[in-house]
Fold this protein.
Amino acid sequence: MKVSVIGTGYVGLVAAAAFAEHGNDVVCADIDAAKIEGLENGIIPIYEPGLEPLVKRNVAAGRLRFTTSNPEAAKHAEVVFLAVGTPTGGSDGAPKLDYLFQAARDIAPHLNGFSVIVNKSTVPVGTAERVARIIAEQNPKAQFTVASNPEFLKEGVAVQDFMHPDRVIIGTEDERARELLNRLYKPFFRTSERLLYMSARSAELTKYAANAYLAARISFINDVANLCDAVGADVEQVRRGMGSDARIGNKFLFPGLGYGGSCFPKDTRALIRIAREHGISMSIVAAADRINEAQKLVLVRKVRAHFGNEISGKNLAIWGLAFKPNTDDIREAPALTIVRSLASDGAKLRICDPEAGPSFMEALGDTASNFDIELVSDPYAAADAAAALVLCTEWRQYRSPDFRRLAEVMRGKALFDGRNQWDRDHVESLGFTYSGIGR
């Protein structure tokens, strides 16, 4: 099939490469000329395990190519995916849809025969209808339909998620669109059919509802962890006890520093706003968002308490800056809040991350230049002469470090485990003081 994808972010680039891998003829477009030039020269703009070889293999095979021309992409395809960014546009949580609507205007005059336009971006309920109106206004003779196909990729395993999806949700009531999208997605399901068809509005809401529910689970267990700290219980034992109940399960039930990234924070706030516009109070979702923001400061309070609120001049090491392992994405990363807070207290920080360091320093902006913050590549160099070590992101290389080496290079012996990765009994036997989340 001839497929086009507008947008080369996490969703668009993964989708384009995955469709090409299944033999489709794919054009991937982006108005960022530098990004397209890089892709044509084999430079992948994001860190996502497995994505680089997938892109290069399909470019070499001639199944995947790149362009800065949205019209060219529209002319090429019978199915056009819109996978542009829809970032939060204001303090009320409303997503910014300008890029999506402009993409629709760009492709409208150039649609070739019957076309299915697919909203892959996360968008408010009713957006498919708005996109359809824009295209019809720009090209009254166009033969097309607009469908919703929300993505459920997890950064760090996005390629695997796309290649082996739990389910694919298609929001359309047009039989021609169903036939085309069924043909496109069927190769991804070898053992079972997990294509779910529904209305476009239901598909749009499903994306928000799914992310809000998962966010609420994370905030719930973080609330429980904070209670464990107060009453002297161990949240790891509580979590295992809860998760062994088949009705609950153990997924997304890990305490930590709160969720981040491009989806959960943005989507929970957008869902709250959508509900408010219709006179509905999403109290649970709103509470999850509030808890999450407060959770980012839990370790900061613990560090302050350990040093008697005398942090100024202390050397502190920070391991992990991305919002989760296996990605360089630092959007809404808890480490941003933690680093800014500790730096404002006067701490001298050495920070380290396998992939996200440069983008993290850029995101810090004036904080990086106005305070004593040094980015280093080696985690033990970051810990050298440190009074305390703070783990913010559980990259594999941080999960089981050489604690004896740490004991030798660190000046202090305080470990703050923001992801409950380390064995408390073991590190305390080596002379460290240990503080986790709810334990």
User: Anything to note?
Assistant: The longest helix spans residues 200-231. The radius of gyration is 24 Å. The longest strand covers residues 2-6.
